[in-house]
Structure formats: C-alpha cells, structure tokens
Design a protein that fits this description.
By secondary structure, this protein is α+β, with helices and mostly antiparallel strands. The chain has a single domain, classed as Bit1. The protein has 4 helices and 7 strands, in the order βαβββαβαβαβ. A 5-stranded mixed beta sheet has the order 5-6-1-4-7, with helices on both faces. It starts with a strand and ends with a strand. It comes from Pontivivens ytuae.
Amino acid sequence: MFDTKISLIVRDDLLDWQKLNVTAFLTSGVLGADPDLLGERYEDASGRSYRPLIIQPMIVLTTDRDGLKRIHSRALTRGMDMAIYIEEMFATGHDAANRAAVRACETEALNLVGLALRDDRKAVDKVTKGAKMHP
C-alpha cells in the first residue's frame, strides 16, 4: 500500500486516440516529477530485458469539462503539483509548442482535457470526487 495515489483524469468527450494520447503524456509528467517512481528493468524467462515501469498503480478517471475544471481548481486550492494537457496541444508537434500553448492561457481559461495528480491518497480522493472510473 502506498501513502500516495496517482490519478489521471481525462475529459469524457475525447476520441479514444485522444484519451490514450493524453494519458500517455500525463503519465510522463508524473514520472518526470519523481524519477524514483521508476522500477527496475523487467526480464523474461529467456533472459531478454525490457524497460522498467512505474512502481505505483495509477487510476484513470473521466469527467466532463466542468468536472475537470472543478478538479483543477480544488487541486490548485490545496497547492497540489499536477501535470496538465490542454486541447490546443493536440495541434502542436513538440514540447516547446506545447509549453507555448499553455503559456498563452490564463489559469481560468485553460481548455483542459486532462490532468494528473500524485499526492496523499485521501487528498487525491477528495480532489477527484465526482470523477468516475474510465469504462
């Protein structure tokens, strides 16, 4: 059992490829903030080695546009560090363009399609209240 919880929250009206894309990018934001989350390399019975994975389980939740804004606001109020993905990032092709797209928006105007949190279990549960497990 971990003291922290990782939750990825994606907007429920996205296309499947967008949900997967956002989830992948948000996962990198969680790992990038805490490299100690990376486990050891995997090895199969034949001795072939594979890249390591995150050691802690993650939960993927969905909510609508307003729900995502509420979760974002609650997380900000609690001072939580989070990874975000905004709709405008679907039209960019690299990290610098992604950061420029976010930088162009005031906090309240972010067109969020996903966010990721890793914090105290109970705090994450409170902040994400109302979001549902991804089907």
